[in-house]
Amino acid sequence: MGKVHETLNDRLREFISKQPVYFVATAPEHGGHVNMSPKGYPDTFAIVDDTTVAYLDLDGSGVETIAHIRDNGRVTIMFAAFQGPPNIVRLYGRGRVVTPHDEDFDELIKLFGPHPGVRSVIVVECDRISDSCGYSVPFMTFDKDRPLLDQWAQRKDVQQKRAYRAKHNRESIDGLPGLTTDETDPVTRHS
């Protein structure tokens, strides 16, 4: 059934690259709400090396993942097969938030496709890589990506994005710090 892997081998890399959606789970250190976020756009996820992955963090309604990672670093990313053979891959690890103010942002952003509304890059050093059967996961058909998030971000000018992030992304639903004041400025260079 389930197996733990030392690294992201070729089979796991191939499986991950074919999934149109993945899920990111985090939780605050002390109490509060567990958060699980679905992520789309296949060009927002990258395997950096055998035990490191990264994904593009785009504008959204909340800032739970950033707040939780800054609180304790714990993060789990899950991929599930909705087509083909059943499989679930979970990447457990320690995350870090890389903003446009950080030295390695310019190199990391090159790993992803073009998207407006970039807030940060989330980098995860995996300390456990596992897969399991996924026998009960239903078959589902992928039609296409929804362009709505990119379209929403393209309609906003710099001031509108800054105001949105200031209102919705400064703290988590549990009051943990999210984006700082200078991090609410929209990225002028996007992926």
From TrEMBL:
Pfam families in UniProt: PNPOx_N
SUPFAM superfamilies: FMN-binding split barrel
InterPro entries in the record: Pyridox_Oxase_N, Split_barrel_FMN-bd
Disordered: region residues: 160-191
Domain Pyridoxamine 5'-phosphate oxidase N-terminal: 9-131
Transmembrane residue ranges: none
PANTHER family, per database record: PYRIDOXAMINE PHOSPHATE OXIDASE FAMILY PROTEIN (AFU_ORTHOLOGUE AFUA_6G11440) (PTHR39336:SF1)
Name of the protein: Pyridoxamine 5'-phosphate oxidase family protein
Organism: Sphaerisporangium flaviroseum
Taxonomic lineage of the native organism: Bacteria, Bacillati, Actinomycetota, Actinomycetes, Streptosporangiales
